[in-house]
């Protein structure tokens, strides 16, 4: 058994003796789930890395969530009975694929009980600090729950409390349906975006946890210039556009990009204003050096301008980049 420096019980982690890295996780079986909501057909695809991964049509967001909540409640009550029977679900008229999809909703529902808007920024940051260690060439790191071993690293300062929130939800769920740390972080991160008014992001389940920490020094330093940030993200398989879209996560938190708990495109609007060079505002309070660096780069600036003008485009691109992020380097059950 691994000993950890985090105080976390490593027995909570799913065992995975041999990790197999894939990027993107294109060997995953793709499942399409059509269902009805408010008279409109919604198609949800679980293929994690293609642009068609998205909810194709969500015409009634509230209806969609209400329906999911109802289904999650029913499944939450019946899941302990249903799960042992998964192999014969057809006898009960229950589609196994729907159960997989609904499991992510059960996690979201459980997370909602402990997740507040104020806690959302830390939880979203946790996602990047777990997945962002991915190195495409070295086939190391990625979305594998190894953050639980890495909390004492300087770059992860402040994340212990965010993980504590998830630990509570996870230990409750583990009683009926065990969930890996990697799945847990990916799903609750998406929920954090959603409760702050951002896009709904479908998250595929089935990630296995690593039993060891990832290599150090893989996360970008805030002192990097635009070229350094681009190279760093490229090593993880992300384009400049995806770098800019993902950096929009900094709209949450206290770095001066509008309302700290509203997920919107104010990050880009404020980047365009470059308030840190104006003596009238408090320069050190707004943005990180890496945020400022993006606004100084011509290629990044084109995306910043686009997202400042078009929040819907930002939401769409953020959603796709988030799905790619949480599938980076993941090792999958049943793959
Ligand atoms: C582009 C490279 C990035 C760098 C250099 C960077 C660095 C940082 C730093 C230094 C902080 C401040 C932490 C503190 O207040 O102590 C921060 C906050 C944050 N980061 Fe990043 N980050 C990057 C990208 C990302 C990405 C891709 C995401 C998520 C998709 C993300 C999510 C967040 C969030 C939500 C916060 C606010 C946390 C809070 O206020 O509790 N960051 N980041």
Describe the structure in your own words:
Pfam families: peroxidase (PF00141). It comes from Macleaya cordata (Five-seeded plume-poppy). Residues 120-335 form the Plant heme peroxidase family profile domain. The protein is mostly helical. Among the domains are: 96-196, Peroxidase, domain 1; 226-321, Peroxidase, domain 2 (Orthogonal Bundle). It has helices spanning 61-82, 96-114, 120-131, 160-174, 181-195, 226-234, 240-247, 266-273, 289-295, 298-309, 311-327, and strands spanning 32-37, 40-45. Strands 1-2 form a two-stranded antiparallel sheet. The two termini are 25 Å apart. The protein binds protoporphyrin IX containing FE. Protoporphyrin IX containing FE binds at residues 121-122, 124-125, 127-128, 158, 220, 222, 229, 246-247, 249-250, 252-254, 288, 290.
Strand-helix topology:
Layout: E1 32-37, E2 40-45, H1 61-82, H2 96-114, H3 120-131, H4 160-174, H5 181-195, H6 226-234, H7 240-247, H8 266-273, H9 289-295, H10 298-309, H11 311-327
Bound molecules: protoporphyrin IX containing FE.
Protoporphyrin IX containing FE is lined by residues 121-122, 124-125, 127-128, 158, 220, 222, 229, 246-247, 249-250, 252-254, 288, 290.
What general outline do the C-alpha atoms trace?
Answer: globular
* Bound heterogens, unique: protoporphyrin IX containing FE
Could you give the order of strands across the largest sheet?
1-2
* SSE succession: EEHHHHHHHHHHH
CATH architecture of one domain: Orthogonal Bundle
Arithmetic mean pLDDT: 78
Number of helices: 11
Structural class by secondary-structure content? mainly alpha
Q: Class of one domain, according to the CATH hierarchy? A: Mainly Alpha
Strand tally is 2
Contiguous uncertain segments of 5+ residues: 1-64, 71-94
Our measurement of the CA-to-CA distance between the termini, rounded to an integer number of angstroms, reads: 25 Å
Relative strand content: under 5%
Share of helix, binned? 40-55%
CATH topology grouping of one domain? Peroxidase, domain 1
Largest sheet: 2 strands, antiparallel
Family: Belongs to the peroxidase family. Ascorbate peroxidase subfamily.
Enzyme class: oxidoreductase
Keywords: Heme, Iron, Metal-binding, Oxidoreductase, Peroxidase
Protein name: L-ascorbate peroxidase
């Amino acid at each position: 058994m691994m000993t950890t420096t985090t105080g976390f019980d490593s027995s909570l982690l799913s065992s995975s003796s041999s990790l197999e890295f894939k990027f993107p996780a294109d060997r995953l079986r793709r499942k399409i789930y059509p269902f009805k909501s408010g008279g409109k057909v919604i198609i949800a695809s679980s293929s994690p890395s293609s642009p068609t991964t998205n909810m194709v049509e969500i015409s009634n967001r509230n209806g969609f969530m209400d329906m999911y909540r109802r289904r999650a409640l029913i499944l939450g009550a019946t899941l302990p009975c249903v799960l042992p029977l998964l192999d014969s679900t057809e006898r009960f008229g229950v589609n196994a694929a729907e159960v997989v999809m609904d499991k992510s909703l059960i996690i979201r529902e459980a997370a909602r009980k402990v997740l507040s808007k104020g806690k959302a920024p830390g939880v979203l940051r946790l996602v990047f600090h777990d997945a962002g260690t991915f190195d495409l060439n070295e086939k190391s790191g990625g979305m594998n729950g190894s953050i639980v071993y890495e909390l004492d690293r300087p770059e992860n300062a402040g994340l212990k409390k965010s993980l504590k929130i998830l630990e509570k939800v996870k230990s409750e769920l583990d009683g009926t349906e065990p969930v890996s740390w990697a799945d847990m972080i990916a799903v609750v991160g998406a929920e954090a975006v959603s409760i702050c008014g951002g896009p709904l992001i479908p998250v595929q389940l089935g990630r296995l946890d690593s039993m060891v920490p990832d290599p150090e020094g893989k996360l970008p330093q805030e002192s990097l210039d635009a070229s350094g940030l681009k190279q760093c993200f490229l090593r993880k398989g992300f384009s400049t556009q995806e770098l800019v879209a993902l950096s929009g996560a900094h709209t949450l938190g206290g770095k001066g990009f509008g309302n700290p708990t509203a997920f919107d495109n104010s990050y880009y609007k404020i980047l365009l204003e470059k308030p840190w060079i104006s003596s009238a505002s408090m320069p050190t309070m707004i943005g990180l050096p890496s945020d400022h660096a993006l606004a100084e780069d011509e290629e990044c600036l084109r995306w910043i301008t686009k997202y400042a003008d078009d929040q819907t485009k930002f939401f769409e691109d953020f959603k796709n980049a988030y799905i790619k992020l949480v599938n980076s380097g993941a090792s999958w059950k049943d793959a």
